[in-house]
Amino acid sequence: MIPRTLFNADHEGFRDTVRRFIDREIAPFHAGWEEQGYVDREVWRKAGASGLLCLTMPEALGGAGADKLFSVVLIEELTLAGASGIGFGLHNEIVAPYLLRYGTDEQKQRWLPKFASGELIGAIAMSEPAAGSDLQGIKTTAIKQGDHYLLNGSKTFITNGWHADVVIVVAKTAPDAGAKGTSLLVVERGMPGFEKGKRLKKIGLKAQDTSELFFSNVRVPLANLLGAENSGFVSLMQELPWERLQIAIAAVAAAQIAIARTVVYVKERQAFGQSVGAFQNTRFTLAGLQAQVQAARVFVDRCIELQMQGTLDTATASMAKLWTTDLECKVIDECLQLFGGYGFMWEYPIARQFADSRVQRIYGGTNEIMKEVIARSMGLR
């Protein structure tokens, strides 16, 4: 295996901290959270107290002022533990950065310290019943009226939506202007007309809080506009490379742990008088998968380096997301096959991985959209 050179001793020390937190505060409760369809809110406060929330935010706003490699460690460890469905990643590395990058000083002071403590939980509402990857097709509107916007519409598939205290809503403030009429508005729990729908039942990530959101004549103060009016689409596009790279980081970690679990199983499982791992088909299958995952890890680690340098472009991040999530699903499927009937049992982690991995090719922009982005970068339109 090619040694990884991204992390220093501080990162590895943090990895140990994350693992201890998972062992103490997540692993004993995760099965129960899967049954109820959401994590207990208390784990957010405990994560905040342990320094796992908003790691990369400035210390003045409650964060640790850490580099993004600490976030990479957290993403990897939650994935390795089968707890990637917990919405820390979206809260830490999607919602909070939008507030930090585009928010006013007042907005940052109002929300971000409580994000870091786990007192407030963040979500971002993009997808709609008729608009998923096509963000230009959203129908939610926010019409300016005096000192507020009147927000109307609905959103679906919203991670952290049921728990959310602060939601960044993508809405049309100039409905006839297409993408150029899109803005980001911050909606807060308790605003009249803001309702949360049912928690959605999914085939995977069952502990993840995912819900519908409804906005009926919600009066959103002008002070809750995030960034410049009608610049929301541009803001969304600027954040996409890091968002998609996070998915790729999780995909490689998931594929690697699937292989590791399968190697342990096939060494122990007996068939026809020998271990399943002794059969050439098993050895060659796992060897081929490991070679592909090693190549994916090298590519993704290079993308992480580019992200750290501020030079990761959308097309390269889309390649990473496309390749690694397709590979993740392939690896987990072939590993599950080597478990035989036991691979189909929910009590085995490989079965939960099979269910959890499928959405990776959908969210963050479907893999078909990734191909469009890549093709356009090649001059193909």
Write down the secondary-structure element order: HHHHHHEEEEEEEEHEEHHHH
Strand content: 15-25%
Instruction: Supply Rg.
Output: 21 Å
* Total count of domains: 3
Overview of this structure, please?
- With 381 residues, the protein is of the alpha+beta class.
- The protein has three domains: 9-120, Butyryl-Coa Dehydrogenase, subunit A, domain 1; 123-230, Beta Barrel (Butyryl-CoA Dehydrogenase, subunit A, domain 2); 234-377, Butyryl-CoA Dehydrogenase, subunit A, domain 3.
- Helix content is 49%, strand content 15%.
- The chain contains eleven helices and ten strands.
- The protein has a four-stranded mixed sheet, covered by helices on one side. The protein has a four-stranded antiparallel sheet with strand order 2-3-7-6, with no helix packed on it. The chain has a two-stranded antiparallel sheet with strand order 9-10.
- Helix 5 (88-102) packs antiparallel against helix 6 (105-117) and helix 7 packs parallel to helix 9.
- The longest helix is centred in the middle third of the chain and has 37 residues, at 232-268.
- It is globular and about 80 Å long.
- It starts with 8 loop residues before the first helix and ends with a helix.
